[in-house]
From TrEMBL:
Binding site for dimethylallyl phosphate: Y167, K183
EC number(s) recorded for this UniProt protein: 2.5.1.129
Name of this chain's protein: Flavin prenyltransferase UbiX
Annotated function: Flavin prenyltransferase that catalyzes the synthesis of the prenylated FMN cofactor (prenyl-FMN) for 4-hydroxy-3-polyprenylbenzoic acid decarboxylase UbiD. The prenyltransferase is metal-independent and links a dimethylallyl moiety from dimethylallyl monophosphate (DMAP) to the flavin N5 and C6 atoms of FMN.
InterPro entries: Flavin_trans-like, Flavoprotein, UbiX-like
Gene from which the chain derives: ubiX
Gene3D superfamilies: Flavin prenyltransferase-like (3.40.50.1950)
One MF term in the entry's GO annotations: flavin prenyltransferase activity
Catalytic reaction(s) noted: dimethylallyl phosphate + FMNH2 = prenylated FMNH2 + phosphate
Length: 208
């Protein structure tokens, strides 16, 4: 997969998944567009000390500084900016990942709501038939959560739960995060070397 990937961060715990994904996509030469729900901005600040509050003009440079990215490589749009390019099918990104995906966002996407930029972008991906990946981060899961995931899966959305494996013998928290991010990259067809695959092979691939 080439081109632009939109990474959306919601208010579920696990904002590190979205940020680590941005880092790897930039490393792979992708253009990255980031948006976050208002709750997501709060969780990012709580979990990582990264402040994405304020105007886009204030937040975007902080995010670019974190990754050492240029404006051409990385764009940031606020939750209420429904005039941002990704909100239109004519400027839709090549793929979108919601990482982490809260159950509230999951429900609103499944219902086809478009009250925020994140929801509108997800709706655009569905209507344009472009790859949409969600990384749900919740436990335990209720029947409503499962039904919403099933509904989206039947529409072609890839569901990649934040469920790290242990066969690669993780030693650090980063190893656990990298496994989940690696599975998302596999789903997007982006080569990576974030974990050792089953059988001891490390490097590009799309299977366990």
């Amino acid at each position: 997969m080439s081109g632009t990937v939109l990474v959306a961060i919601t208010g579920a715990s696990g904002s590190v998944y979205g940020l680590r994904l941005c880092e790897e996509l930039l490393k792979a030469g992708k253009r990255v567009v980031v948006t976050a729900s208002n709750a997501g901005i709060g969780v990012v600040r709580e979990e990582t000390n990264l402040d994405l509050s304020g105007s886009e003009e204030e937040s975007a440079p902080r995010l670019r500084e974190l990754f050492g990215a240029s404006p051409e490589q990385l764009a940031f749009y606020g939750a209420d900016n429904l005039f941002a390019p990704p909100a239109s099918g004519s400027a839709a990104p090549d793929a979108m990942v919601v990482a982490p995906c809260s159950m509230g966002t999951l429900a609103r996407v499944a219902a086809g709501l478009s009250s925020t930029l994140l929801e509108r972008c997800a709706d655009v991906m569905l209507k344009e038939g472009r790859p949409l990946v969600i990384v749900p981060r919740e436990t335990p899961l209720s029947a409503i959560h499962l039904e919403n995931m099933l509904k989206l899966a039947r529409l072609g959305v890839r569901v990649v739960p934040a469920m790290p494996a242990f066969y690669h013998r993780p030693r650090t928290m980063d190893d656990l995060v990298d496994f989940v991010v690696g599975k998302v990259l596999d789903t997007l067809g982006v080569p990576h070397e974030l974990f050792t695959r089953w059988g001891g092979r490390q490097g590009p691939g799309t299977g366990d």
